[in-house]
Design brief:
Elements lengths: L6 H8 L16 H30 L8 H15 L17 H11 L5 H27 L4 H13 L1 H7 L5 H16 L3 H14 L4 H17 L3 H6 L2 H26 L5 H9 L3 H5 L1 H10 L8 H16 L7 H17 L14 H23 L2 H51 L5 E4 L3 H7 L2 E4 L6 H4 L7 H11 L2 E7 L5 E2 L5 E2 L9 E5 L6 E2 L2 H12 L6 H14 L4 H13 L3 H14 L4 H13 L3 H14 L4 H18 L1
Length: about 650
Amino acid sequence: MKKTKSVQQIRKKNESAQSYSGFDKQTDLSGYIKYLIYFVLIALPVFLAYNYYSNALKVNGYNSFQLDDGWIHLQFAKNLAEYFSFSYFKDEMVTAGSTSPLYTFIIAIGFLITNNEMLLSYFTGILFFALSSLIIFKLSMRDFSKDFLASLICAGLFILDRMMNFISLSGMETTMYVFILLLAAYFYKERKTYSLAVLLGLVIWSRPDGVAFIAAVTVDLILAFFYFKNEEIKKIYTKDILLKMAGIFVLISGAYFLMNFMISGSLFPNTYSAKVAYFSDVEKKISYITDKVFPFFSSLSYSLYIAGFAAAVIKFVFDIIKRRISENSLYILFFVFFLLLYMIKLPEVNRFGRYVMPLVPFFILLTVSGYREMLIFINKFLKNAVILRFVFIIFAGILFYRSIEDYDNFKNFYAQQCKYIHDRQVKTAMWLKENTKEDDILGVHDIGAIGFYTGRKLVDVAGLVTPYLNERLTEKNYSQIMTEYLKENGVSYIAFLREWYRPINQKALFKTPDNSPQEVMEVYKFIPDTTYVISKDANYIMNKALRNLSKKDGNDLVNSMNMVTELEPEYAEAYYLRAYGYSLLNNKSKYEEDLKNTIKHYPGFKDAQLNLGMFLMENNRYVEAEGHLKKTLELDPTNKAVQDSLKVIEEFIMKENK
């Protein structure tokens, strides 16, 4: 009978270049040394992430997240713990609105221990970051044939990674998801069949895009069976084992799909279809890799990773052609399927690139593997392992230096972004909590902090937890559909980022800082049949014009506002901005005309009343000016300049009457 070769024998045959004169020194970790290394690998990420946390607390004076979505998980988890209901408001808004039910369950258990939502989120994120650091080291030791140096470099780059530290304190599921992916990869490499089946089931509970990893494992197994004809794999993954694995996987993943279907009538969460609806632009799909993905994976210290990553991919292609087993096949297949999934369904990386962050540990694994393979290849000809190992250490030192530099810069960036969200979402939530009644219903776009801190029932105009609106997000007249729905559901107040939805001709009750070029949150009293939100097209033009305002291009501003007023003929601010455009062009008659148009549609527009009053006064039209300045004073009683101007007008009129 023909003797079956072991996995180790096949690997040695297929990768015979690995031993090149002792370049890849094997290290067996055991005893106290092993556990000391494990302790350091867990302790370091805890310390580094805590450094981000403590710096943000010192700078800002409060705890916050850099993403509003962290509070969405908290709201679902709190209601699950208190009402045993997967709902967004007490036990009344039952919805499949969580992207990561597994993370929600974990946080819900945490709420049984503590009510401190920030501590709970920080602890969970850092814990999974630390555990991931240990797993990526063990995975590296296995992939790199117990090459301790290469494995330590890989784990070190992961621990120092700016994105992993940054996202571990976000209140999001990302580090948990990364941990499950890495552990699943480790079980796959170690041929832990049933453990792998459990983890693959949990992958889908962690995030819907986990189907890409499941596909990668499946295709890698198919290649091993039918392309590489790996007899050892066939012995491990027998028909009986595969059926049992499939049963475990279907049982766990099936429960996920069943839960979503029973709650929302869809196999996937509301969040999935809502995000797909927002980012369905065909042009974005075509340019997704070049415009979104590549800039993320080539920024800052990542720019030094590209050559190693490319080398790993090239080596993988050669291995496939020569029918050699590659330790990197799973990671590369995951990259391909993951990016293909997003390119087709959701061509975005989103804020801070968080959609593609789960790829970061595999990016690091492939990078270190690629550089290591490059040096092994060179050593075939140089035959001096000592020199090349020294080169490896020097280059690793450069990577560490750049990573530390990025880590340090992102420490302050994290604090800034926490303040950014606190100044908008959290402050708005606190204002609404203090200035609305408990039975008031709020219409909001960002439901995280507002939902968690106000305790009010919400209508989610982004559709994450309001399925009716979710299904209509892409309709051209969505603003009208949304407004009608708010009316039908008894909404009392609306809180929108004006960059997304812009109510017009109505005074905001509360406004977050608007001295930034990005995102201003405004709160309005929702008045049925009066409150009006402009169309998406008009708002897009308005946002673009406001971004270009500093250029002081009168013609461009006038043309832009012509388009807006054509779409929204009663929009006062559009006339006001067009008036400003005419002032830049020194067209006084048009300037006056559009200030009057502004006031016609919205008499409470203070700046329009003021500017028209001052314009008329400068042109010696005191009687006309008086009415507008008096109106300005009604709107702004403490305005000293207006008070002085009115005195001048009164004196002039008195003289004229004598």
